[in-house]
C-alpha cells in the first residue's frame, strides 16, 4: 500500500480507501460487509469512508462493528453530513448548525469512536449561510470530535469561499470528494486547479464509473444478473448515464492498454485516477472480499505517457469534461 498526504496537512491516508456507499446495510449482508473490511485491512488499507446517509445510518453502524477491536490510531475514518437521515424531519438535513452538531454525535455513536479523522460536507447547502456551516465545523474540530474538515462535490468558487472562512476560524479545509474517472473528468478544468492553489486534495469516488470500467457490461447485451445496472434500489439509476453502447464499446477498446501493463480494466481505472497528483485517494467499494484484493493492486502503479495517450484515444468523445457539470449535478435546494 502507498500513502499520500491529504491536502496541505500532515495527515497521511492510504491511496486506496475503502468506501461502503450502496453496499453496507443495503446490498450485502453484514457478514459479507465485515469480510470486505477485513480484506481491506489485510491488504494494507487504513482509510475508510462512509456517511450518515448511507442506508439511512446503517452503513456507519456496519463499519463501526467491522472495525471493532482495531487500533484506532492506525485508522483514518471519514464520514459525512448533509443528506436527510432518520425520520427525515425538517431539520434532519442540510448543513445548519443544529444538523451538524447533532449529526456528528450520531455518527460517532454508530462508528463506536470518540472522533473521526475527516468530517465532510456531503454537498453544499444553498439554504444555510456558509458562515454558519463553517462555524459549526470549527466547533466540531475544537471539541475534538473531528480532526479535519472536508467537503464533497463543491465547485471551485465554493471551495475558495469555504477555505477562506476556515482559515479565519482557525481550522483546515483539506479535502474535496468528487466523482472522477476516465469517463467523468469534470473536475480537471476548475476544481483541481483551485484545489492545488488552496492546498486541498481530492478523495475521489466512482473511479471505476459504477463498474462500467471493469468491462463487464457488453454493448448490445443485457447487464449481468445481480450487477449494479440491475439494482432497483439506486444502483441502476446511478450507472445509467454510462450504459450506452458507444461508451461500452470504447471501454472494451481499453483492454489492450490494461493487458500491456499487466492490469485488469478495473485496476487500470483506479491507477488512472491516482496518476493525478491532486488525488490523495481513490475510494473503492466491494460486494465480495476478493474484489478488494484485486483493486488494491492498483496502488503504486505508474502509467506511462503512451498508455495515457492510448486511453484518451480509445475513449474519445465519450469522456465528460465540462466543468459546469459539478454545479449542474448539485442540489439546488436542501433535500427534504
UniProtKB/TrEMBL annotation:
Keywords: NADP, Oxidoreductase
InterPro entries: K_chnl_volt-dep_bsu_KCNAB-rel, NAD(P)_OxRdtase_dom_sf, NADP_OxRdtase_dom
The keyword NADP belongs to this UniProt entry's keyword annotation: yes
Domain annotation NADP-dependent oxidoreductase: ranges: 15-314
Pfam family, one: Aldo_ket_red
Region ranges (Disordered): 217-236
Family in the record: Belongs to the shaker potassium channel beta subunit family.
Protein name: Aldo/keto reductase family protein
Organism in which the protein naturally occurs: Jatrophihabitans telluris
